[in-house]
Amino acid sequence: GAGVSQSPSNKVTEKGKDVELRCDPISGHTALYWYRQSLGQGLEFLIYFQGNSAPDKSGLPSDRFSAERTGGSVSTLTIQRTQQEDSAVYLCASSVLIGTSGYTEAFFGQGTRLTVV
Amino acid sequence: GESVGLHLPTLSVQEGDNSIINCAYSNSASDYFIWYKQESGKGPQFIIDIRSNMDKRQGQRVTVLLNKTVKHLSLQIAATQPGDSAVYFCAENSGGSNYKLTFGKGTLLTVNP
Q1: Taking a contact as any Cβ pair under 8 Å apart, which residues of chain A between 79 and 98 contact chain B?
Q2: Residue B1 pLDDT more than 60?
Q3: Chain A interface includes B45 (CB < 8 A)
Q4: What is the pLDDT of residues A40-96, one digit of tens each?
Q5: Can you tell me the distance from the alpha carbon of A25 to that of A8, in angstroms, rounded to the nearest whole number?
Q6: Most buried by CB count within 10 Å: which residue of A23, B48, B61, B105?
Q7: Closest CA to A56 of B102, B112, B103
Q8: Scanning every residue of chain A, which has its alpha carbon at the shortest distance from the alpha carbon of B5?
């Protein structure tokens, strides 16, 4: 498809286990975001990749969270030693940056609903 | 840090009425703003955007107003329909070399038939 794809759509894991969430951005989009959304809450920024620049990791809540983006395309968000408070919907978005001053909307995937039991 | 907030967490309107959803932002350097609509179980979807060199922009049944003096953004939906029921988020981007979007808490719009 032409949109942002995330997998799995749902993930239930036991407390203490590691999980990997995958995001396939729209082809050609240089910017990729990860956000977290708790029930009834807004979007919490986690990490931002832009081209070959160093990622902005300022939103990662702890060192248990990490993300990588291989080849400027697919991204994986890893949560180690999951805790119950990690339960949320994890949203990925991508966008294309036009020139040095242009900006376009971010397109979101459907999200991965993570439940830590 | 900078943040984007919303005045009203919930808004209930009758079908056919006009809806106004408000958003306050605090980063005076922000130069690009977007409204997103998020339906239950889905990711946010783009509705309309506006750049800081504009005060108003219209789309189909939606209008975004930007008041830079008071750092206020609003989304107006004309003739609100049941399908407009969703959570609406405003987002700002402070430009520079970052272009990272910052989202507000969201407003739940409920349209009563």
Answers
A1: 91, 93, 95, 97
A2: no
A3: yes
A4: 777 888 999 988 888 999 999 999 999 999 887 999 999 999 999 999 999 999 988
A5: 14
A6: A23
A7: B102
A8: A42
